[in-house]
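ok trying again, last paste got cut off:
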Amino acid sequence: MRSRRKQANYIPAGSCGVLVTAAARARGRGEELFVTPLPRAAAEPGNRAARTGSVVWIDIDGEPQGSELGRMAALRPHLTVHSGGGLHCCSALRPGQR
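nice, full thing came through this time. structure:
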């Protein structure tokens, strides 16, 4: 990621296309891209700016195959990240949802 202090480097929540483009560019440069399933109160690094919320985080080690892929797709996560050693799937819960 370029500077974490530069406001322009923060992508607004819900901007999927912008996030995909930023991820492709970072990968092409050999850089990391940090994301969170929760919106931020301010464009600044660290946990302090993250708003509170409820998130389901699923960490899948290895490469899912066959029926595992179908079950994962049925979850319809808001964010799926290939971590290098598997997948991280995140879904933000609506207030009152369990």
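cool. The mean pLDDT is 80. Residues 1-52 form one domain.
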